[in-house]
């Protein structure tokens, strides 16, 4: 739950897999339209209203939650990587910056090109 490197965070490994994509910071339902296919959804938490976004996202990162949270369960069902309980993800990650999400290790780090 602390920064692992500039632009990186750790949390609970909630759905296995590793992917790279641009971080898309979504703070409320008003931001849903900003998410594009292949983006990494970064948010405070999710609930059933957020479920359609899981079909667009390459991975999920939430600031709250655990293995039985909505984000973790739906990410596993959609077979996309997820890291939950990643404190301060919305303030430590930059919108649009490429990130590597490792849902097996619970890490989110900056991607190199």
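Q: What amino acid sequence fits the structure above?
A:
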């Amino acid at each position: 739950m602390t920064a692992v490197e500039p632009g990186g965070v750790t949390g609970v490994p909630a759905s296995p897999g590793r992917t790279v994509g641009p971080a898309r910071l979504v703070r409320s339902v008003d931001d849903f339209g900003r998410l594009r296919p292949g983006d990494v959804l970064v948010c405070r938490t999710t609930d059933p209203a957020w479920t359609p976004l899981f079909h667009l996202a390459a991975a999920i990162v939430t600031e709250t939650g655990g293995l039985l949270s909505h984000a973790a369960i739906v990410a596993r069902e959609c077979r996309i990587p997820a890291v939950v309980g990643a404190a301060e993800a919305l303030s430590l990650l930059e919108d649009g910056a490429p990130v590597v999400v490792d849902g097996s290790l619970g890490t989110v780090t900056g991607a190199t090109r």
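Q: And what stands out in the fold?
A: Helices lie at 51-54, 70-78, 89-92.
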